[in-house]
Model the fold of this input.
Amino acid sequence: MPSPTTPGWASVPGARHIAPEEAQSLPKIPALPLSWRDAKPLLENMTGPEVPKNWQGALPIKYRLTGAVTAHVKVDMDTSMQPYTVVEARIRGSELPDEWVLFGNHRDAWVFGGVDPSSGTASMMELTRALGELKERGIRPRRTLVACSWDGEEYALTGSTEWGEEFADDLKKKLVAYLNVDESVAGAATTAGAEGLSFSPSAVASLAPMLVEASKDVRAPSGKSLYEAWRATSKRDAKARAVPLDSTLVETRIGSGSDHTVFLNHLGRPVMNLGFTGDYGVYHSMYDDHYWMEHIGDPTFEYHVALTRIWGLVGLRLANADILPFDFGFNASKLDKFLAELEQKNKIDARELKLKKLHQRIAEFQKAGNDLREATVRSLTSASASREKIECLNQQLLQVESNWLEPAGIPGRPWFQHLLYAARYTYAHLEFPGLTEAVEKRDWKLASQQAELIDRALEKNIKLLHAAQNSWENNK
Ligand SMILES: [Zn+2]
Done:
């Protein structure tokens, strides 16, 4: 979400600001959390009907919906402009300096932030130290690595959003992927049981298979590979009898609520979020501090280490890969699932909205993705391709995610331009956002327009993958 008075452009010194009255994202009603001590006299003097059972809170009074309580509220707000500082570090790529892999983590916290964000920040400090050491030894990645420490995440993702808006043109052209870690350990390892904390990453579906692959080469705190530990906790968390399939390990639904938002939803670049989770309970409170982490969260700090390793490994594989490891066949299989779920959940009648064509188009995209993948694997094992040829292919692969962008944005939210991913107003994930919201309103005309936009983007990507395969097979 962009800063309220610079919607769509960077809030840097000297930037134009619109008047606060014109800012659509500024709330009109002041809101502030109250302590229970201050809330109690207000709540206990209400006289209206009792609340539904599950709305009753923990104070020793009957909670009520309405009732005349008059309070004098003095609003005293500081609306001055204050600076945020984004810290940036770079290692220039040795061969492809204009392709970037971006690591990011926020630095601001609501209170002490032992978990959120300092667990992630500890991993980031360690990761950048290790990358710096590689550089000292003369080992440079082929592509450029950028690491950003964001400010102002808790206030509407401001630091990353303004940075993304400022460098939008570069990022759209150069960003291979954004790898976000907000909290590296958001759970209590001391009470997590034998299997330990859950590795619970999310990623755009095209990058999910490479993440699973990378997890096989990282050690989890249990001593098993991260892949084995991940399978075990997934089975436990799903209360499943069998170990889940690899294809279901990565969450490919991506909501908002962290710094990946601008890169995916506004700039159309692939993203990943990495972290361990478990029972936690101190989120955003004054108890989320270093004491909690040292005694309850991760006393041996081994989860922090494991997270740093997978983060760095994924980043380095992306930075050093000959052919970028995007899997669009897998991507398509997830899209088909999203669409089928949308139909089932909303009981869509084919007389109101026809989605058969969209399923067919997704199947074509799947075939094009799988065919290209097989073609590249085939010739990579049989002969060596020239550097120019590989680079041409990589540029085509990078274009796919950009083609999901619709410049007009989704209805009512022009800043959110990705046709496959957005978030609900709660931050919850939302797939095919324009289509889904139209279906939920039973606005069939708008829904079919939105389906048409997705269809066109799919068509563009199918053509792109065909062209990529064609030039791969016919050029030296
Ligand atoms: Zn956070």
Remarks:
- Residues 106, 116-117, 153, 182-183 surround zinc ion (CB under 6 Å).
- The two ends are 45 Å apart (CA to CA).
- The mean pLDDT is 94.
- Residues 444-474 form the longest helix (31 residues).
